[in-house]
Amino acid sequence: MGRAGARRSRTQKKRPFWVELPLLIVMALVLALLIKTFLVQAFSIPSDSMQNTLQQGDRVLVDKLTPWFGSEPERGEVIVFHDPADWLAGMPVDEPNTVQKVLSFIGVMPSAEEKDLIKRVIGVGGDTVECAGDGPVKVNGTALDEPYVFPGNTPCSNDEDGGRFKVTVPDGKVWVMGDHRQASADSRYHQDDPNEGMVPVDEVVGRAVVVAWPIDRWATLPVPETFKNVPGKS
User: What tens digit of pLDDT does each residue of 175-233 get?
Assistant: First the structure.
């Protein structure tokens, strides 16, 4: 083949950008979907129950990879979990528009149709968690130092509806509480459900690791030091 033939062959192999664009878009969508399914997903904070750690409307990134390797939630972690027993019954759900549906499908935005919650793990399987009066919260007899509790709140809620309790967490479940203690309908107030207020580990989507949006609120979500002093398994 002469030089002219070689030039023609190379020219024929080049495709216009507009021909390759659909393929690139499909590849990007597949990659985003894989990331959403197995690695990280965005989640929008729906209420004030985790103030001041998280504000309503914050976007957090949730680590979905670790549970795939058999890791279970640990004390002190902020976790996202599926509604375990109609905790969100009666709560209004906004109908997403087309753009929101597309963005939630690829994981850039959380799905408005999924009924998920976000709370802090206080007790894991085998732990005894208790609250008396205004607190402090005790895990396996050790009082927690909780600087993340909403200013003006008491660590325990001194009421007859579930604020005073002593429970032992079964294996395969966790006990969760919101940081805004007096504005969180958490494990304390669902002790009459089939799980006795516990969240099955199988319902946990993953651990919230970073506040990603808005930018001026960017922060990591580490496990507080106080949980390192709790005896027993974690």
Answer: 999 999 999 999 999 999 999 999 999 999 899 998 988 999 999 999 999 999 999 86
166 catalytic? Reply is no
What span, in angstroms and rounded, lies between the C-alpha atoms of 111 and 104?
5
Among 64, 104, 111, 119, the one annotated catalytic: 119
Residue by residue, DSSP assigns 161-230 as: TTTSEEEEPPTTEEEEE-SSGGG---GGGGTTSTTTT-EEGGGEEEEEEEEEESGGG-EE-PPPGGGGG-
Residue 203 sits at φ, ψ, to 5 deg, of -90, -5
Tell me the mean pLDDT in the region 84-98: 70
Write out the H or E segment, with its range, that includes residue 30.
Answer: helix 17-38
49 tagged catalytic:
yes
User: Is 0.70 surpassed by the pTM of this model?
Assistant: yes
| Cβ neighbours for 25, distance < 8 A, ≥ 6 positions apart | none
* E strand intervals along the chain: 40-44, 59-63, 78-82, 116-123, 128-131, 138-139, 142-143, 165-168, 173-177, 199-200, 204-213, 219-220
Under 8 Å between Cβ of 232 and 126: yes
Q: What angle do CA 42, 25, 214 make, to 5 degrees?
A: 25
Nearest to 178 by CA among 117, 116, 119: 119
Task: Out of 36, 49, 104, 187, pick the active-site residue.
Answer: 49
Greatest C-alpha distance within the chain = 92
